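Chain X:
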Amino acid sequence: MKITQNFENNNPTLYLVATPIGNLEDITLRAINILKEVDYIFCEDTRHSRILLNHYNITTKVDSYFEHNKDIKGKRIIDLLHAGNNIALISDAGTPGISDPGYEIVKLTIENDFNVVPIPGASAVLSALIVSGLIIQPFTFLGFLPRQESKQQEIFKDYLFRAETLVIYEAANRVLKTLKNAFDILGSRKVAIAKELTKKFETIIRTDLETISNSDIELKGEYVIIIEGGNPTDFFKRFTIIEHVNYYINKGQSENDAMKSVARDLGVTKSDIYKEFKIRR
């Protein structure tokens, strides 16, 4: 077993610093101090981050790190760590590594035996989840979904029989399309939609997928969508035995394993499913 982080080694550190998701006051004292003390700050958009840094009189050197320069800047970050510098990584809003390329630099930093330290704070995922009024745990964070309708629908199909609450990020110009795709596959589950979180015009819409997918909402900003988890028993009632078995076959199971899965879902024996499947096939 290899210990990759031990603060007694005095190795340089990459700090993952959470920043506000809207209200500039939503930052910890520790985060401010770290941003002042490190040698470099890497962020997605230097112009955007300057607003926060100037607000707190943080004069640390700033450089960019985002999806389209992550390979070049990732190497630069590692070179700076090798030179003995401590570095902070921030995103445009919230916790770095969530729906941004933070994972890649964290992995690279660990592989090079440098320390990685979280400085926790604001997160749009958790902020939206706790005010949604829906069951909080278990939940699954899906981030931004693919733009293609067919790929979105495939993802929703994967969660058709799952009980966990779903958390999705979506841009304003695609939010209604995504909600309609969710309704078409998942049915009219409860949903909460959060926009402008922590800002002056913060809005939480609590409704159901059928209602919201057929309504008009203000197409501005980014949204966090919280969708109620499914009740597997309810969904099983919507399918014939053949459809239920084929669901698992389409997910890669053999016919035999699919029948075992259906028997487990329905609380019956595999022989019961086998008989029914063969009769109706």
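Chain Y:
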Amino acid sequence: MPADTLLTAVRAHLNLEPTHKVLMEPIQKGASGRTIIRIKPEGYMNLIGVHYTLDRSDNANYLPVGQFLESAGLNVPEVLYDNIGRHVALVEDLGDIDLTSLKGKPWEVREPYYRCAFEQLDKLLYTRPPKDFALQPKFDAAMYQWEQEYFIEHFVETHLEKDGTALREDPILAGLSKRLGATSPHMVHRDFQSQNLLLKDGKCYVIDFQGLRMGRQEYDLASLLYDPYMAHTAEDREKMLELWEEVTEDTPIEPILKDCAVQRLMQALGAFANLGHNQNNEWYLEQIPAAVAGLKKVIHDTPLEDSLKEYL
């Protein structure tokens, strides 16, 4: 059992006696398929225990990627113990407060944390992994096509109960994946959204980074700007873009950013429908309207509107 394995790991790490009191609390948030437990050994600081299987290829990347990002100066939880053979790790407990807790707060309250998030994203831009470092497969045209198929299968066909054949054959969607997959110059998190940014001591910390790969940085930026969990207004996004440009001294190319936003929102809708219907987590179904609203806005007056409007 994962809990038993993690209990053994924490006793080994802290050199605890078998009778030492240790409380364990499951952490239900997240959809990665890993078992994550908050561990409270009496008299010691809390730890987060992670037990993973190899059913998903990116799970094995969690520890090496975390150590790599920490060495590159990003704010990530410190890995305190790992046992690759047993697929367990103990990491720093940063608490439960993430960026979604600031939804609806004045911009002045949110601004320092978005600044910190953009600083983390900017560091990824200038970070290069060693040649022998194993990342997930890069974001190429085939990967973007896979995300589109994920959207069609789970959102269009399962959630909406509509035929997705026309979308699979749509040249506009095919063109989107081809444009975005033409180059992959930067490392990307691939799920850079508010639930994966924990807040502590005035800083934000990046989690769930095991999907790190080479791709377009605009994908991560779009993930934050068009985050369905936050449902930003147009005014919010304008302020966030101004902050991004201040932090990075760079202005994103608008057509590429919008293409990435379309792609990301389709992926999110596929994920929400899959988790809601196939894993019976209705909370994710409640996020669908915000993602649909965001997608409708970003495709307005573009060729993609004709392709997708029937499904929105």
